[in-house]
Amino acid sequence: MSNSRASWKKVLPTAAAAAMMLTATMAAAPAQAEEKPPATLTVIASGLKNPRGITAQSDGSVLVAESGEGLPGCAAGTRCLGATGAIVKVPFGGSMSRVVTGLPSVAVGTADPTTVNASGPAQAVRSTTGGYTVLAAFGGPGTPQLRTSLGGSAKTLGTVFRTGDGKVLGDMVTHEATLNPDGGDINGNPWRFVQDGSGFLATDAGANDVVAGPGDGTTSTKYVLPKNGTAESVPTGIVKDSDGTLYIADMGGGQVGGSRIWKVPPGQQPQVLVSGLTNIVDIALDWKGDLLALSYSSSSLAGAPTAGSLSEIDLSTKKVTTVPTGDRLKQPSGIVVDTYGGVYITNHSVGTKGQLVRIWY
């Protein structure tokens, strides 16, 4: 694990360990971005607490995972566990409501509580058995020892779990501590997941891998993403196309031009589809079949984050086109395309003044 990980703790909120090498059977296509006309951004919901991933539902609504604010009143510099994580539902054309509250959230207290950066729910989908399936991130670093020290209520941090009965469907923190697939520091920090049959595939930004879980509590390592030069991969967004092809984004160590998007056809190993992007924190497939890539910051995460950006990638030609959003994307975190083709992004995702915005372009 290199010392560079401290620079992007602010984002995920922990970083990855050194990765094992994969053989890339497809040559990387350097990103040559073109621009579209200026996009229109509309704020759909505000006052979100560390909003993360978004899920589109068949009724036109979207779900937003809120990582919460840790424990309100936590002393500055002290790590505290609270029950402020939530799932927010936003109907198409309607007002937001928190459909699940009281989920575990951990954060280090800050002098200004509106700037607190919490770990907690990072993605939620409606479960076929009722309730929701939730992926909870765990910054810290993500070790079993740290989680245990926070008390029994922290048991779902760093896992994919089910609301209602709290059943853990897969524990990425334990997986990382037990197997350490990349051979680096122990650091489990899952970020996004897709459903895979009756189970799931989850990216782990702290462990540099993709973990498979059949849904019975067991896990296995599906892929380990290699470094980009000396930069850790830090896997983030993951989506599955209708033909079963996976697309996985990485942050490339928070370096300018270090991010890659990987393509994984069914039965094959990851192949680099596009490289040369910056700080890709999430991805989505749009109604045209193109891939949308969301950048958390256009500059190196060794310094303060600058405006984020949105890119459209033609999967046939690998052409990258920038969607002009000016400086209006500030520390964005999640992206989804709804059933009507609308693009939603969680904006201002660090702190308690987060937004859900819709983009037209």
From TrEMBL:
Renumbered to this chain, the signal peptide range is 1-33
Which UniProt keywords are listed? Signal
Origin species, per record, is Streptomyces azureus
Protein known as: NHL repeat containing protein
Judging by the UniProt lineage, the source's domain of life is: Bacteria
SUPFAM superfamilies on file: Calcium-dependent phosphotriesterase (SSF63829)
